[in-house]
Design goal:
about 130 residues, alpha/beta, Nucleotidyltransferase, domain 5, 5-stranded mixed β-sheet, 3 helices, 5 strands, about 20% strand
């Protein structure tokens, strides 16, 4: 079983899943990035396939909210570390079978969030009147 988490669009998160063949996708609306972890936990529980172990997890990088990008990277890195599976960063949606995408990945890898624009934390914003 392989998963890809995609938070590259605002207000939605996509979870991709494959047992080795084609990818299937489920989309969930979110109002805040804090919702991603409980939604993913519920998704994993409801989409387990018998005794098929998790073999890898991917993260779609790029556009999306600053916080969601960081949250998704932490979820993927933590799950990969805890289960001893590889984690990879993808520039877009998964288009190849998991065996091809994860061929060069190792369990010691990790992903870093990338952002579509510079962070604006601490930037002065116009005063509201």
């Amino acid at each position: 079983m392989w998963y890809v988490i995609d938070a590259s669009q605002r207000d939605v998160v996509h979870f991709w899943q494959s047992s080795g063949g084609d990818w299937s996708m489920n989309t969930f609306s979110i109002q805040h990035s804090l919702e991603i972890l409980p939604i993913f936990a519920a998704y994993r529980t409801s989409h387990e396939v018998g005794d098929v172990p998790l073999q890898g997890i991917g993260v779609v990088q790029g556009a999306g909210s600053f916080t969601s990008s960081r949250v998704v990277a932490v979820i993927a890195n933590t799950l990969a570390f805890a289960l001893g599976v590889p984690v990879i960063a993808l520039p877009g949606l998964p288009t190849q079978p998991p065996a091809v995408l994860f061929a060069q990945a190792t369990a010691s890898d990790y992903v870093l969030p990338t952002y579509s624009a510079p962070a604006s934390i601490g930037a002065l914003r116009p005063t509201r009147v």
